[in-house]
Write a structure and sequence with these properties.
The chain is mainly beta. 14% of the residues lie in helices and 38% in strands. The chain has three helices and eleven strands. It has a five-stranded antiparallel beta sheet with strand order 2-3-1-4-5, covered by helices on one side. The N and C termini lie far apart (51 Å). Residues 1-5 have low confidence and may be disordered.
């Protein structure tokens, strides 16, 4: 009989972000500013995954992320899974998906864009969710995943 053990401990209350591509894990950690939290945090990287070979996982105790934060994660790791945990049980489970519009998340790469000159929220329409391409609502400049700069 094979014994299996968990590589990452269970979580009583909080959020688990699972199936993060291993090469994107620390971008997610940085983007969520997890280093500023006092909550207990578990970060696992290069863990075995049946779907992708390896994966990253983040568990944050007593923290539930806002929609704006989740939309940012979806830009970096669009197929990650988000689990909300209460009393050691999964009470909400969803696969991240880019919304149709990103507000005050992405910086326009066009230096002449009004969003870079006036105190206003940036607005981008997601025009290709699979390849992650967004287009500025104001100047219509398209940005591909590798060119996106988060605010």
């Amino acid at each position: 009989m094979n014994k299996k053990e968990l590589l990452v401990a269970g979580l009583q209350n909080g959020t688990v972000i699972d199936h993060i591509p291993s090469d994107q894990l620390f971008k997610v950690v940085s983007m969520l500013k997890l280093d500023t939290l006092s909550n207990p945090i578990t970060i696992g990287n290069n863990l075995m995954s049946k779907k992708s070979g390896t994966k990253g996982i983040i568990k944050v105790t007593d923290k539930y992320f806002e929609k704006n934060e989740i939309d940012r994660v979806a830009l970096i790791a669009p197929h990650a899974k988000l689990n909300r945990i209460a009393n050691y049980e999964v009470v909400e489970k969803k696969e991240l998906e880019l919304p149709d519009e990103l507000i005050d998340i992405v910086k326009c790469a066009n230096p002449k864009c009004i969003s870079n000159k006036e105190p206003m929220a940036s607005r981008f329409d997601v025009i290709d969710k699979k390849n992650i391409v967004v287009k500025c609502h104001y100047c219509e400049k398209a940005l591909h995943k590798d060119d996106i700069v988060l605010l």
